[in-house]
């Protein structure tokens, strides 16, 4: 697993639940971001193959939708943005229940918070 270091300066909600400071103002994407928070929260509560699969599924579904909107709108930073998505998915794909611990959960929380607020926020208003 290659977990790239995350410099999250925003802090992490505790409990780990989406709030409107994460809003990108596209209803489908905000709903999917809520699902991502819920899936990380669920994995922290119950370390199981089902929890990992659910997190992978909602993540892949969300990234597909977000990337589709970027492509449709000729979003300039699409390629770099997609690379970050792909790296996160690669970690989730290799994740086993025996890997799940505080460190990886905190990494996933930091990644998600930092990604939305730094990288996703850049497309606000640009995806039609
Ligand atoms: Fe993204
Ligand atoms: Fe996103």
From TrEMBL:
Pfam families tied to this protein: Hemerythrin
According to the lineage, what is the superkingdom? Eukaryota
One annotated GO molecular function: iron ion binding
Q: Where does Fe cation 1 bind?
A: 33, 62, 66, 120
Q: Which residues bind Fe cation 2?
A: 66, 81, 85, 115, 120
Q: Metal-binding: is it a keyword of this entry?
A: yes
Q: Lyase as a keyword? A: no
Q: Boundaries of each Hemerythrin-like domain copy?
A: 25-126
Entry keywords, A to Z: Iron, Metal-binding
Give the record's family classification. Answer: Belongs to the hemerythrin family.
Name the UniProt record assigns to this protein: Hemerythrin
The species is Chaetopterus variopedatus
Show the taxonomic lineage: Eukaryota, Metazoa, Spiralia, Lophotrochozoa, Annelida
